[in-house]
Amino acid sequence: MAEHNNRLMAARDLQMWFPVRRWGFIPAGAVRAVDGVSFELRRGEAVAVVGESGCGKSTLARTLLAIHTPTGGRITFEGRDMEQFTSREMRWYRRRVGYVQQDPYGALPPFMNVHRILREPLIVNGVRDRQEQEERIRDGLREVRLVPVEDFLDKFPHMLSGGQQQRLVIARAIILNPGLLIADEPVSMLDASVRVEILKLLRRIQDAHNLGVCYITHDLSTVRYFSHRIMVMYAGKLVEKAPVGGLLDDPCHPYTRALLRAIPDPEPENARTYRPVPGGEPPSLMNPPSGCRFHPRCEYAIAGLCEVEEPPHFVPRADHEVACWLFREE
Ligand code: SF4
Hints:
Blueprint: H1 2-5, E1 7-22, E2 26-42, E3 46-50, H2 57-64, E4 72-77, E5 80-81, H3 87-96, E6 97-100, H4 104-107, H5 114-124, H6 130-143, H7 162-174, E7 180-184, H8 192-209, E8 212-217, E9 229-234, E10 237-243, H9 244-249, H10 254-261, E11 314-317, E12 320-322
Parallel strand pairs: 3-8, 3-9, 6-7, 7-8
Antiparallel strand pairs: 1-2, 1-4, 4-5, 9-10, 10-12, 11-12
The structure holds iron/sulfur cluster (SF4).
Iron/sulfur cluster binds next to loops.
């Protein structure tokens, strides 16, 4: 019961397919960007969704943000079914879910100064009291360490560094006190020198507000900084889900193992341990491989099984799921 009450969001068999039409009108299949994804996110929990580019992570983020309407499955948030939301509930949901985009400069309106960028969501969401607005704007800036606050209020986005722009995006995302933050590759466009700072900032904010965080990244080397659990996505499907330690120290799925081997080691003497994920690129999401979608790239594929049958999720250890036939019980 406590576990149930602790649940912030749940997705069941979530599906986001984009129809494709030839000549603009002849149905020609669908891009299956998210295809049968199920997971739960608890209050105060940070979950990283990892995988190569083109595996459906960003579409999953945009579906959770209600930017896309799912073509199948269910999302519940704080016990309410998103499909049943009235327009009023949808406005409530958009207040409860903050969004940190990949490209901070593109996410910020260039013609607004910092004060106006932070005031806008307050006005739109009914915070009319001028004093309360000013307090929340200043608290938000202090929280993301854009201090002294007075030095930043009148600045426009182009006057800020990339790291400061992303801090401002984070301040805007939390100014309405959300319960969930969705961060889509929040540091991938920043200089290496500020990436760790921004991840530590997100971690601090997450702890301070007991926020649920869904952290989308292609970079497994960053997930230890603030994730409690990891979900590995491949070709529109979740292939492994586990607590961060268990997954990074003892990964099960061949794709997860390949992703971990593909992390460059900063020590030059270890550079030879680096091996890219075999088999080139992830498959087309319009024509994914039959059976296990990883089978054309998998060095352990079982002939006559992996290319035919899609593996269900097996549970090799407590709280650790993997969709791979290697873990089937005999
Ligand atoms: Fe490899 Fe088969 Fe496991 Fe897929 S199910 S990852 S092809 S061993």
